[in-house]
């Protein structure tokens, strides 16, 4: 496939060593067909430029450790984040985003694409997301009262994760909202050229360090 890059893609420069790039997105949402098309095109276009996309649907096998995989994303040097309404309400997706931030250099390591369903530029909507996680914490706390503390193994970890998400979500969304992320249509129409250039620059900087 690589020998057709110059004919199909607008930028002919290809990374000499295959770079692994994680993708963090909510793939089981109602508008997943559109979401999947975008991610599939993204993977195909970047693969032609010698970039390997790591997706849980393809790389997390049967009985694979989900939490370990999410933590691996959190430690990734290059993470494409496809932000949607479902993403911002998903405990797994938000765990990944918080993990990325926890390991530092958040702005340098993420390459976001913001879908229209994630209206992160409206402060009222941002508050709604915070309220969502506060409600999730309250709902879980109320449920925990129904059983003895001895039977809550693993549940307390969920409370801790929800609390970390609630504490971080406003700041993380504000950081992404301040980036010029372009529209999904602009990315698709250009075969993700701007995203690729940003990835290429960061990868080359890291290789030179």
TrEMBL record:
Domain TIR: 17-151
GO BP terms in the entry: signal transduction
InterPro entries: TIR_dom (IPR000157), Toll_tir_struct_dom_sf (IPR035897)
SMART domains, sorted: TIR
Protein name in the entry: TIR domain-containing protein
Species this protein is from: Thioflexithrix psekupsensis
């Amino acid at each position: 496939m690589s020998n057709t890059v110059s004919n199909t893609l607008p930028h002919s420069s290809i990374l000499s060593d295959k770079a692994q790039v994680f993708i963090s997105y909510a793939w089981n949402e109602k508008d997943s067909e559109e979401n999947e098309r975008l991610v599939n095109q993204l993977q195909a276009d970047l693969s032609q430029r010698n970039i390997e996309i790591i997706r849980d649907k393809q790389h997390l096998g049967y009985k694979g450790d989900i939490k370990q995989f999410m933590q691996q994303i959190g430690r990734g040097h290059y993470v494409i984040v496809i932000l949607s309404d479902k993403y911002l309400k998903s405990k797994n997706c938000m765990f990944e985003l918080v993990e990325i931030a926890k390991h530092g250099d958040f702005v340098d390591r993420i390459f976001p694409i913001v879908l229209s369903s994630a209206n992160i530029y409206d402060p009222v909507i941002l508050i709604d997301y915070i309220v969502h996680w506060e409600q999730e914490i309250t709902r879980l706390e109320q449920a925990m009262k129904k059983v003895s503390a001895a039977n809550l193994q693993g549940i307390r970890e969920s409370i801790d994760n929800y609390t970390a998400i609630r504490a971080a979500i406003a700041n993380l969304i504000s950081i992404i909202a301040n980036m010029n992320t372009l529209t999904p249509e602009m990315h698709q129409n250009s075969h993700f050229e701007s995203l690729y250039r940003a990835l290429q620059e960061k990868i080359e900087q890291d290789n030179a360090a």
